[in-house]
Amino acid sequence: MGTSGMTMKLKDKIVLITGAGSGLGREMGLLFAREGAKVGVNDIRPESAQNVVTEIERAGGVARPFVADVSSSAAVRKMFADFLAAFGTIDVLVNNAGIGRTRESTELLGTTDLTDEDWRLMLATHLDATFYCTREALKVMIPKRSGHIVNQGSIAGTAGLPFVSNYCAAKAGIIGFTKSVALEVAKHGVIVNAIAPGFIETPMTAPLEPEAKAWVIANTPLGRMGEPADIAAAALYLASDDAKFMVGQVISPNGGWTTA
Ligand SMILES: NC(=O)c1ccc[n+]([C@@H]2O[C@H](COP(=O)([O-])OP(=O)(O)OC[C@H]3O[C@@H](n4cnc5c(N)ncnc54)[C@H](O)[C@@H]3O)[C@@H](O)[C@H]2O)c1
């Protein structure tokens, strides 16, 4: 795959991307495979994971599905056991799985409207999962003194967004976790960074109400939402050797969105 073996950024690298059955994770899976990686496609939805594996294989790449709910520490432990049995090691982990809302609602959910479950599910899906997967990956990466971990933050975690305080807390938590772990493991040869995308066209943002979309576009100096490829390119950089001097950084492809 790729144009030439010389230019592939992830040749023979073993990669696990969580939530890769859709949107940004899918785009990363396709790009990383084109760049020579063998890709573990995690998703909680079996069909989504399998569909992306099939897409990668049809394009000539190597991929396998790993169906697991990454908010469960037992499921993550089992996924890593299966992953390591299949691929032997892990070079790159992308903690990307996520949800935009905890229940169907066309109403804006203020903080007083959030149930305990809305809070727990959001934190578990993003923050607990990032911790569980990072913990397992480091058990392999630290002893072999190499590896890259890329965490999916958001402008929700850097600038903040109204009416999604659980989501913003989870994303800010991921960014703090990224900075700490990055400092801890840098001397072991493991590179840890985060991405903080602005609003990107994916199945997650598709249900946004027209007024919400207009508000997003009005607050984005480029005047439009981003494409999954904009985020996959940032992930590829952080996953590759090009980022070998990047420690605990947050890259924010966001069309110019600034702190509100
Ligand atoms: N789209 C955006 O504008 C945007 C902006 C900033 C950050 N993000 C973040 O990027 C990540 C990907 O978002 P997306 O837009 O591609 O969304 P998406 O809904 O298209 O894809 C997310 C995938 O994660 C999977 N998933 C959800 N919970 C899971 C779990 N517990 N275990 C395993 N898989 C699970 C879903 O099944 C889905 O396939 C998320 O963390 C999201 O918060 C998205």
- Main sheet: strand order: 3-2-1-4-5-6-7
- Provide the number of structural domains: 1
CATH topology: Rossmann fold
Structural class: alpha/beta
Question: Can you count the beta strands?
Answer: 7
Could you spell the SSE succession in H and E letters? EHEHEHEHEHHEHHE
What are the low-pLDDT stretches, counting only 5+ consecutive residues below 50?
none
Q: CATH class, please?
A: Alpha Beta
> How much beta, percentage-wise?
5-15%
Name the hetero compounds present.
nicotinamide-adenine-dinucleotide
What's the total helix number? 8
Q: Tell me the Rg in angstroms.
A: 17 Å
How would a crystallographer describe the biggest sheet? 7 strands, parallel
As an assembly, this protein is: single chain
Key words describing this protein structure:
260 residues, Rossmann fold, 7-stranded parallel sheet, 8 helices, 44% helix
Protein architecture, described:
The protein is of the alpha/beta class. The chain has a single domain, classed as Rossmann fold. It contains eight helices and seven strands. The protein has helices spanning 23-34, 46-58, 73-87, 116-144, 155-158, 165-185, 210-218, 228-239; strands spanning 14-17, 38-43, 62-67, 92-95, 147-152, 190-195, 250-251. It has a seven-stranded parallel β-sheet with strand order 3-2-1-4-5-6-7, with helices on both faces. Helix 1 (23-34) packs across helix 8 and helix 3 (73-87) packs parallel to helix 4 (116-144). It is globular, with a radius of gyration of 17 Å. The structure holds nicotinamide-adenine-dinucleotide. Residues 18-19, 21-25, 42-45, 48, 69-71, 96-99, 125, 152, 154, 197, 199-200, 202-205 line the site of nicotinamide-adenine-dinucleotide.
